[in-house]
User: What shape does this take?
Amino acid sequence: MACALCGCAASDTRAPIDPNDLDGDGIPNDADLCPERYDPDQHDEDGDGIGDLCDNCPTIPNPDQADTSEVALLQFEDGVGDACDLRPARAGDVLAFFHPFASAGEAAAFTGEGWTIANDHAVAGGTARWAGKRRRMGDGLMGQLHLPVISWLDGQAGGASVALELDVDEGSGLTCAIRRAATVDGADELVASEVFGETAVKRIGVPGIPVTNAILVGWRDINFDRKATFLCRAIVGGIGGTVHEIRIPSGLDLGFGSYAFGASGAHVEASALLVYTSPMNHGNL
Ligand SMILES: [Ca+2]
Ligand SMILES: [Ca+2]
Ligand SMILES: [Ca+2]
Ligand SMILES: [Ca+2]
Assistant: This one.
């Protein structure tokens, strides 16, 4: 009688929930790297046994998934693990987007050209740029581009670079880039710049030895007084490596929340791109 009234049971062709595979991805709960999220590919970027979709630090092995630093200060945990929390003393940070470049289908999240996804990396061999189709607002916006391979092409001295961009829009944007040395015996540089704004340069390489295996970080923050700062950081050597940093003031009082990355004159392989947002920093940055 009830079915005749609602018309649901007779047309419901969904398979019943399997108690041994609650998320229905075909992986039994006990073996599922993410037992409550549909992730049939089981991708685990950092190999810590926690699948990307439910890992609170998807590029840093942290099998305990601890997220306690805010709780210790009587705030709520924010879902960003202690091992990678941008601001461990403040709640509210969000990992908005994570791109592990694990399958060719991830290309659909971007517009642009020159990158291809292969062997768990986004790969460029010359000129390339991808801009994320989605954006996320927030007074803080941070991108982390993991670049295990940067190899400058011959004949590109002074012009080759790999860059992460934030708040890109028509005629505006912030860029954090690693740029090849202008001379063969020079040292590669970190360059922070804003369209129609300031540019700052810092030498980060060793003369004659090009930078490779780096994490490029761009972090735009708008403080309580609506003043923006852009932090550009290169961690050479990967996680735990040598940190180089530049800060420039920015003219933004409202961010677009967009992100992009590109390469010029280089063979570059990106293993992951993370995008975080955070609420107002009250000038912490
Ligand atoms: Ca799953
Ligand atoms: Ca993991
Ligand atoms: Ca992890
Ligand atoms: Ca946290």
Observations:
- DSSP finds one helix and 14 strands in the chain.
- Residues 44-46, 48, 50, 52, 55, 58 surround calcium ion (ligand 2) (CB under 6 Å).
